[in-house]
Amino acid sequence: MASLIRSHLARLRKSPLYWAALLAMLPYGLGLCNSAIGDFQSGVVSAGLWGQPLFGPGLLMGIILAVVFSLFFGTEYADGTIRNKLIAGHGRAFIYLATLAVGILSALALYAVNLLAWLPRLGWMLRNFPAPEPSRLALCLAGTVLLAAAYCSVCVMLCMLVHRRSVLAVVLILLMVAMFAAAMQVQDAYETAVSGGMQMVLDGNGEQQWVFHEPGQADAITAFLYDALPCCQAYRYMVLDATPRMLLYSAGLAVLTTVLGLVLFRRKDIR
After folding, report:
1. Which H or E element spans position 68?
2. Which of 42, 59, 238, 239 is most buried when burial is the number of CB atoms within 10 A of its CB?
């Protein structure tokens, strides 16, 4: 398995696509930092100011990884790489897990570059931003790492099961965009339920009416999705709002997709 990981890493170091992704994380990280500084200068004083630059990368991590994985690992079937690894005597489980390990390492490297983008401004931020609670900070950091691992496990599962690169790219990108859009809807529904306020509804005649809702609780499905959907988690980490349950959901998604991917990959006909 170590040789498989080294092989992937060697390819990754030579990949122009991955280097382009790393470079793209620099302006993204700087933009998140500037956004937090802008909020502070406009009068926002909150420990959540640290959440934007520290954990903002998780918000678009799925889409970024979908592009990188589909175009990098997606070539393995077309090039006959997986077939050659099997002929060389590598087990399918080792091939799959090596791909996952390198995928997670590549995602963490993207995250690290994003953090390095605003390192020159760290001193100013430490002097001016309110210090966050270390426990909340640690929980959000662990959640973001698990979130990246969950994204990687989903992407690797599809990369190892879909042999046509063009189909893989479309499926992965559409899946991540759909998850992002769904999370925005869930977040809106949850905040409307717990915060109250005016909401537009249709009456029995099909006419639009504005109705005031008292603050309350979201229904069980909305509350579950608010904790479980990766993009909802990423947004909540940005405001330093994390719970152990969210971390368990990310870990569960990573384990579930890895086990499912391994089972299906073992049965896949590779020619």
Report:
1. helix 61-72
2. 238
List of E strands, 101-259: 197-202, 208-213
CA–CA dist 5, 58 (Å, integer): 25
217 — alpha (psi -120 to 50), left (phi > 0) or beta? Answer: beta
Indicate the average pLDDT of the chain. Answer: 86
Q: Decide: 38 and 127 in contact? Cβ < 8 Å.
A: no
pLDDT at 271 over 70: no
Amino acid symbol at 122: L
| CA dihedral angle for residue 109, residue 114, residue 118, residue 119, rounded to 10 degrees | -10
CA distances to 87, 121, 199, 249 from 263, rounded to whole Å, are: 20, 47, 46, 21
pLDDT digits (tens, 9 = 90+) for 183-222: 999 988 888 777 765 555 555 565 665 555 555 677 889 8
Q: What is the pLDDT of residues 2-44, one digit of tens each?
A: 888 888 888 888 889 899 999 999 999 999 999 999 988 888 7
For the segment 110-117, the average pLDDT, to the nearest whole number, is 92
Answering whether pTM is above 0.85, one says yes
List Cβ neighbours of 62 (8 Å cut-off, separation of 6 or more). 151, 154, 176, 179, 180, 230, 231
Taking phi first (over 0 means left), then psi (-120 to 50 degrees means alpha), and beta for anything else, what does residue 175 get?
Answer: alpha
The pLDDT score that the predictor gives to residue 41 is: 87
Contact 48, 142 (CB under 8 A): no
Cα(94)–Cα(88) distance, rounded to whole angstroms? 12
Alpha carbon distance 54, 167 (integer Å)? 33
119, burial (CB in 10 Å: exposed 0-12, middle 13-18, buried 19+): exposed
